[in-house]
């Protein structure tokens, strides 16, 4: 009797402690993002997934542009153009619905499709002539966690019972970030990350993420999913860290892929972009969704050359999205592979083999770069 009474006290104290503090110490960043995101209740994730055939999981990539995004694809003249995050969210939600109607279980959007990739920011003018005209408008069209548009994205995943991978320009207090989100079919945000190092002149607008923003691979019933953005696919520290976690599905968000065969374009060419994506799928032994305005490509896994891609000439209204079926029961769903090309062992080899003559020099590219919203407002005319 006494022992039972003691257990009851213990149970009461435990319940009190559990109710008054978070179960695992301070709230994590991801827990905070989920607390601030408001969605209508959905069915339990297990009930949703119990109806899916994992032998046939349809992946989808959007390749149509957002609202008010000047065409043709390489047009960087945005005189008189205003961003429209409200309209773009509504268009994006309609594409989520369309993908779901086509049977998709995961749909991915290009880089900062919300509110739109600012092509003109890539130029050679100092100060950045595009930002002088558009910086304030861009700040005002960036999303904030838990705002109406942010919640609409999470709700679209719930309403369509689909995994939704988006890239958004996000405002966090005095900074903008290039943020990637993976939202589950029950509305839970599984991945929230900032691009660690916006590339080139993107660094005039967005602030760098931190290394913690790379550790993103999550286990889901359809496989382990990770995300990177654009030039991150050419940063060894980014690809190594995600590939070492053995993804089954990798989401690669690029802003735009111009028509193939334009050899004046260098790193902006579709040849270079699809080469980076194809190598990533091969080295990482993963299915890969390259989502980009113009042409998107879905690689079914590893070294398979049998990818799915739209034609450059496909009109956006006829082909806004591409689809590809994969067999998710064949994915390893392992958190690491000690014998892969990208492993703890190969990481030790890099450390041991790194040439002694290279000085310990961080350079100017790697250190954290910030751009304040104040400075963006100040430069706007
Ligand atoms: C976007 O919608 C919000 C309401 O959700 C409204 O307050 C805001 O004015 C709208 N923005 C534009 C540019 O229409
Ligand atoms: C796989 O799912 C897609 C989308 O629902 C469907 O169009 C296709 O016919 C399915 N394939 C098989 C082999 O069942
Ligand atoms: C941006 O928002 C600020 C604060 O609401 C406002 O004062 C400013 O006029 C807006 N600028 C543009 C270009 O929309
Ligand atoms: C090729 O790229 C250049 C930019 O470097 C662009 O001006 C030109 O219009 C492009 N050509 C075609 C056929 O798209
Ligand atoms: C999917 O892969 C599993 C495991 O490799 C295999 O047993 C199954 O037959 C495959 N399903 C289809 C429809 O090919």
Automatic annotation (TrEMBL):
Which reaction(s) are listed as its catalytic activity? a nitrile + 2 H2O = a carboxylate + NH4(+)
InterPro entries with a match to the protein in the record: C-N_Hydrolase, C-N_Hydrolase_sf, Nitrilases_CHs
Q: Which SUPFAM superfamilies does the UniProt record give?
A: Carbon-nitrogen hydrolase
Q: What class of enzyme is it?
A: hydrolase
Could you give a GO molecular-function term held by this entry?
nitrilase activity
Q: List the protein's name.
A: nitrilase
Is Cell membrane found in the keyword set? no
Q: Where is the secretion signal located?
A: 1-19
Coiled coil (residue ranges): none
Family, according to the entry, reads as follows: Belongs to the carbon-nitrogen hydrolase superfamily. Nitrilase family.
Q: In the Enzyme Commission scheme, what number(s) does this protein have?
A: 3.5.5.1
Residue ranges constituting the CN hydrolase domain according to the UniProt record:
57-328
Gene3D superfamilies in UniProt? Carbon-nitrogen hydrolase
The reply to whether Signal figures as a keyword in the UniProt entry is yes
Q: Which PANTHER family match?
A: ARYLACETONITRILASE, NITRILASE
Q: Name one Pfam family in it.
A: CN_hydrolase
Q: Which UniProt keywords apply?
A: Hydrolase, Signal
Superkingdom of origin: Eukaryota
**Species annotation:** Stachybotrys elegans
